[in-house]
Structures are given as C-alpha cells and as structure tokens.
Amino acid sequence: MTLVIPSGLTALPGDLRNPAGGQGIPPPLVLFASGLNTGSSIMAEAILRHAAQGRVHAASAGETAYPDVVHPMALECLCAHQVPTAGLRSKGWGEFFGLSKPPVRFLITFGEVYASKAGWSPNTLIANWNTPDPAALVGQEIDIRSAFEETYRKLHGRIQQFLALDWERMEGQSLVEALADIGER
Known about the structure:
Largest sheet: 5 strands, mixed
Helix content: 25-40%
Number of strands: 5
Radius of gyration: 16 Å
C-alpha cells in the first residue's frame, strides 16, 4: 500500500463537514485515479459526490482516458443504487495536475498508477485503495455485472468510512493511518 504525507503536515486546512470549506475556502478535492477511467474510479467519483453532498469535491481520472467513455455497466450499477450519473466522463489525470489546476487534497489510487509518483502539491495526501477495475474484465455478462456490484459495495463502504473520519481531531499521522486502514478493507 502506498501512502504519502508531506513532512510537517499536522492538520487539514478547511473542514470537510462545512460545504463551503470554511471562511470562503472551497471544499477539498478528492481525486480517484486508476489505469483506465471507465469503471471503478468513475464509480468512486459518483458515490463520493452523492454521499458527500458538497462537503468535498469528487473527481476521477485515469492513466489513459477515452474521452467521454464510461462503461455502461458502471452507469447501470450506479443507477440501480440511485447514485446520479450526470456529467460522468473519462478523464486523464493531467486535467488535474499543474499550477493552474485546483489543488488535489486527496489522491486515492486504485492500483499502481504513475499519477501517484507525479510531483503533486506538498499538501496532497496520497493513498492506494487497491481496487480491481471491473471494466477490464472479459467474460460472461453475468460475471461482469457481479464484479461491478461487488466493486460498488466495496467503494461505497470505503467512502462511508472516509466521510465518517473525525476531521476536527485528526492530525497528519492519524489521518494517514486512517486512510491506509480504509484502503485495506
């Protein structure tokens, strides 16, 4: 499991329970990154966006992006769980990297991806929640649908744990440990 915390970081700026992020500060950006941005990372973006209700900004990206392509079974699975899918599209992580881009507060990868090794801001916390991408499966439709459902259950549980963290009390190292623990479940 890869987890990186900048040296000297002791607390998160802003409050994840406050939709405005506190005193005009925008909510923190959580970026989910995977090899392909057509399945699991897209699902995580939608689940977090729905569950967080504005407390964080959720996005997803991949090493390779197929513009505007989202696996149809990912969309079906999200809709079956009443998670809105409007605006979901495949994106490359380069859309979120660079000086003119909004700061990524949390980069959560779903496997070994190059994005985790890029020179993100020192305030970006990086964690790996190893999650196989059901969009990469080949086989019978019933098995692929089952894999999407299992991915949904795993991501939903992890995201609920992420949102339940006690942001007011958590400091750098305890936050790192909590993120690592969530990724191991």
